[in-house]
Specification:
35% of the residues lie in helices and 12% in strands. It is α/β, with parallel strands linked by helices. Strands 2-1-3 form a three-stranded mixed sheet, with helices on one face. It has a two-stranded antiparallel sheet with strand order 4-5. The chain has a two-stranded parallel sheet with strand order 6-7. A hairpin with a 5-residue loop joins β4 and β5. The longest helix has 33 residues. It is elongated. It starts with 5 loop residues before the first helix and ends with a strand.
Length: 192
């Protein structure tokens, strides 16, 4: 084997170190990809959304610190929307809504406020002629609509909560007891 000069040894050593570093980085990247896939993500540092589909834009109103319209990731829950709006105020009655329901694009989340005697008082609920937000409508509010009694109102709230909210009033035709005439009343008094 020929004798190598000191400068040649330094060059070969630098190449060996570079190859070693590239190899270590490749092994770490592969281990990271395996861990990301195991955690439900995707290789290469990207992550997949657990809810699938596009983001949801929701209107958060009522007894929250910063009411407004917020964009939430797919699969977000009502509790996430409330948190994005700064959380409930001291007068909030969050037990008055289903905080575990998934939010739907275009939904209005209304956090009720405690009224006198601890009874929930939803902002704007005294106005019977204005539209009612379907996303946070209470049984009592739904009962103010022509053709809706306590049983049907309860079925609507149950249907909404089971489906994580409703994107359209037309989805209510799947609730038993709601016919064409009732659907017209719902379209006049509800907003998505």
């Amino acid at each position: 084997m020929p004798d190598l000069s000191r400068s040649q040894l330094v060059v070969y050593a630098a190449i060996a170190v570079a190859v070693l570093l590239i190899g270590v980085r490749a092994v770490r990247q592969e281990a990271g990809d395996v861990a990301a896939v195991a955690a439900g993500g995707a290789p290469g540092g990207f992550s997949l959304r657990s809810g699938g589909g596009p983001d949801a834009v929701v209107d958060v109103a009522g007894a929250v610190r910063r009411p407004g319209v917020y964009r939430l990731p797919a699969g977000a829950r009502v509790v996430d929307a409330i948190a994005r709006a700064g959380g409930p105020t001291d007068r909030a009655m969050p037990a008055g809504i289903n905080r575990a329901a998934r939010v739907v694009d275009g939904q209005q989340v209304v956090v009720p406020e405690r009224g006198p005697g601890g009874v929930a008082a939803v902002a704007g609920s005294a106005v019977e002629d204005g539209p009612i937000g379907l996303g946070g409508a209470t049984v009592e509010q739904l009962e103010t609509i022509d053709g809706i009694g306590p049983v049907t109102a309860a079925k609507i709230v149950e249907f909404r909560d089971e489906h994580g909210g409703l994107a359209s009033i037309d989805q209510l035709d799947q609730v038993s007891g709601i016919g064409p005439a009732t659907m017209e009343s719902l379209r006049e008094r509800l907003q998505p």
